[in-house]
Specification:
Length: 248
DNA sequence: AGCCTTTGACCAGCG
DNA sequence: TCGCTGGTCAAAGGC
């Protein structure tokens, strides 16, 4: 059912947004990252892809590329769930530290049961992540028109995708950007977790009309909302800090 | 046997 | 129209 709507709507990438998950940006301390990167050699069979970010979802890498703005390669992941078209781009430094994560889309399903990778992920998901995020400073940004900006006013809007950012984010090794649209200055200083329908009226309406049921859930609240509440706030704060730092 | 990662090639958008 | 860049595909290989 979900896919139907999604397929019909070209909104594939434009409509999504949402869940911001923080990724454990770390090194190989926790092993989290280790799995991801170290995975190359193969280490964890069952949890094979615990990788990139323990956000509770299963991801499959489908590409990697060296982008211009960043010195490090960017990896492309897709949610492995049948009807889920969520994708994410992860940029990480040579040492495995995640410098940037961009989510594109919203999951139309709940997180996989904790019997798999989720176990690892959920285990220290938000809570740990928040901390980790703080430590190494990794930020997540969501791509899409309407966005649930998790990051508040501190969010730094990056225009384009490469442009001038090289100095800033790279340096700080972390970037928090809300890739909403671009120069829509309106968005930025806004709210946290507020649906900015204003930005994408068309999309919003589109979604509202049919996505309400499935995508509605996807709007993001469910994702983090259910298992993360307090943590979420905290993470937000972290991000905020992170952003601030970066901004500075 | 199944799923994931890796990697080069291909395609589309933009200046 | 051409070249560049980002994003995706698909084959090959590994666990």
């Amino acid at each position: 059912a979900n896919c139907v709507n999604q397929q019909r709507c070209p909104v594939d990438m434009a409509t999504d947004q949402t869940l911001l998950s923080r990724e454990p940006t770390h090194h190989e301390d926790t092993g989290t990252d280790n799995l991801s990167e170290g995975n190359q050699k193969g280490s964890y069979p069952s949890v094979g892809m615990v990788k990139t970010s323990e956000d509770g979802y299963n991801w499959r890498k489908y590409g990697q590329k060296q982008v211009k703005g960043s010195e490090y390669p960017r990896s492309y992941y897709k949610c492995t769930h049948p009807n889920c078209q969520v994708k994410k781009k992860v940029e990480r430094s040579h040492d495995g530290q995640i410098t940037e994560i961009i989510y594109k889309g919203a999951h139309n399903h709940a997180k996989p049961q904790p019997n798999r990778r989720a176990a690892l992920g959920s285990t220290f998901s938000l809570d740990e992540m928040s901390e980790m995020g703080e430590g190494s400073g990794t930020c997540v940004k969501v791509e899409g028109g309407s966005v649930w900006t998790n990051i508040q006013s501190t969010t730094e809007i990056r225009h384009g995708s490469e442009g001038r950012t090289d100095g800033l984010e790279r340096t700080s090794s972390t970037s928090v950007i809300t890739d909403l649209s671009d120069p829509l200055s309106t968005t930025q200083g806004k709210s946290v977790g507020v649906f900015e329908s204003a930005e994408t009226p068309e999309l919003s309406s589109t979604l509202a009309s049919h996505d309400d049921e499935e995508d509605g859930a996807t709007q993001g609240s469910i994702l983090l909302g259910e298992d993360a509440d307090d943590e979420e706030s905290e993470s937000k704060r972290r991000k905020k800090e992170c952003c601030l730092i970066e901004t500075n």
